[in-house]
Structures are given as structure tokens and as C-alpha cells.
Design a protein that fits this description.
By secondary structure, this protein is of the alpha+beta class. The protein folds into two domains: about 10-70, no CATH class; about 85-210 and about 220-234, Beta Barrel (Porin), CATH 2.40.160. Helix content is about 20%, strand content about 55%. It has helices at about 10-30, 35-40, 50-70, and strands spanning about 85-95, 100-110, 110-125, 130-145, 145-165, 170, 175-190, 190-205, 205-210, 215, 220-234. Strands 1-2-3-4-5-7-8-11 form an eight-stranded antiparallel beta barrel. β1 and β2 form a beta hairpin. The relative contact order is 0.12.
Length: about 230
């Protein structure tokens, strides 16, 4: 005959309340069954409710840390939009016997720019008239955004030289040399105001006349001038 078991009604009520609370927490995923993962028979990658909560808290901590320190995952980085600039500059110098002009057009993608420049030189002296032109291919690099400094260099790509005197006209298309430039710019919205200086140094040689007469003289031309211009920023 079994011994009678005396239970306290209050203890029974507390025990039932605790069991109900544990069942509710288990359903909500706050706690998980206290059974090792191998016993559950799942794969090593499986995770119970307690594991999920732990990983979730770790992810929240990582996100808060990245936001606090300004760190961003490489896959979440957004590249800045490209800055495109279209520029036009010109400058000229005139006197009684000399006329010099320069015109440059360039297209810039972010900091790097490509362009072409046209150089023209005319001089009358000692009964001779010199008419020289050249075209250069330019490469430039821009520092800054609203206020900019652009440094550039160019190589003579083609040109034409003419010498006219009492004996006839001599021409050449043999030209060599380079050009260097420095330009300051300031942006007002999509519009740029530009001012700079350009230094040219070219050499013309192998002049010949229509009859085949050649000149042994080599004609160097060099100098610097101020250029002004405008640009458009996209």
C-alpha cells in the first residue's frame, strides 16, 4: 500500500505557473530546449532557438559598431557619381607686328582630362611674313571640386609654317614641341569661370618653296600668354 503524498496547494499553483511561463518563452523563441545539438540529430549547420537569438544579438552589435565607427561593408559601398567637365579657353596677344592666339577645348572625367589646342602665330619683320600654326594633344589633371587647379601638358601633333618674302613663299608641315598650362577655376552650380596661363614652345623646319628650293633655317617660337574661358560641370 503506497504512502500518501501530502502537497501544499500553494506549491502546486507556483509549479504550474512556472511551467506555463517556460512553455510560453519556448514558443516565443526566447529560450530553447536544453538539449545538446548532436542529440537533436540535426546537421552541424542547424541551430536551435537559443542559437538564433545569440546570432541575432551578435548581428545587432556588429551593426551598431559599424554605424558608430563609420565602417561600411565593401558590398554596401556606393561609389560617388562621376564629375564631367567640358571646358573652353582662349587668349590672344596683338601688337603692330605680332599676333598670337591660343584656343583650347577639353573634356574631363573626374580628375583626368583630354583635349586639343590650336596655336597661331603671325609676325612681319624685315620684309618677311611668318605665319605659323600648330595643334597639340593635351593631357591634364584637376585638383579640387568647387575651386580647382588644373595642370596640363601637350605634344605637338601637327602644324603648318609659312615664310613669305620677296623671293617667294616657303612652307613646311614639320613641327615639333610642347605646351604646358595651369588653370584656376571656380564653379557656380553647373558653370565654371576659368583663368590660366599657357606656355608654348615649337620648332618649325624643312621649309621648301613650290619650285623645290629649300631653306636650311630652323624657326623656333616660344612664349607664354594668359587664357580665359568657361566650363560646364555635369
Amino acid at each position: 500500500m503506497p504512502n500518501p503524498v501530502f502537497t501544499n496547494p500553494l506549491l502546486v499553483m507556483v509549479s504550474r505557473l512556472i511551467k506555463s511561463c517556460l512553455a510560453l518563452l519556448l514558443c516565443l523563441g526566447v529560450v530553447g530546449p536544453l538539449i545538446p545539438e548532436p542529440v537533436l540529430g540535426g546537421s552541424p549547420e542547424s541551430c536551435n532557438a537559443l542559437c538564433v537569438q545569440r546570432e541575432y544579438r551578435k548581428a545587432i552589435k556588429r551593426m551598431l559598431h559599424q554605424r558608430k565607427t563609420g565602417q561600411v561593408h565593401p558590398s554596401q559601398k556606393v561609389s560617388a557619381p562621376a564629375i564631367i567637365r567640358l571646358r573652353w579657353l582662349t587668349g590672344s596677344v596683338k601688337s603692330e607686328s605680332i599676333s598670337v592666339s591660343n584656343t583650347a577645348v577639353s573634356l574631363h572625367w573626374n580628375a583626368w582630362g583630354l583635349g586639343q589646342s590650336d596655336f597661331s602665330y603671325t609676325e612681319t619683320k624685315s620684309g618677311k611674313t611668318y605665319a605659323l600654326t600648330s595643334k597639340t594633344n593635351d593631357l591634364s589633371y584637376t585638383f579640387g571640386s568647387s575651386w580647382t587647379l588644373t595642370l596640363g601638358a601637350g605634344i605637338a601633333a601637327s602644324g603648318l609654317g609659312t615664310i613669305t618674302d620677296s623671293s617667294g613663299t616657303y612652307t613646311t608641315s614639320t613641327v615639333s614641341g610642347s605646351a604646358y598650362s595651369a588653370t584656376l577655376g571656380v564653379s557656380f552650380g553647373f558653370l565654371e569661370i576659368l583663368v590660366g596661363t599657357r606656355t608654348n614652345s615649337f620648332t618649325y623646319s624643312s621649309f621648301t618653296s613650290a619650285s623645290g628650293t629649300s631653306l636650311s633655317a630652323v624657326l623656333p617660337v616660344s612664349g607664354a600668354q594668359t587664357v580665359l574661358g568657361i566650363g560646364f560641370v555635369f
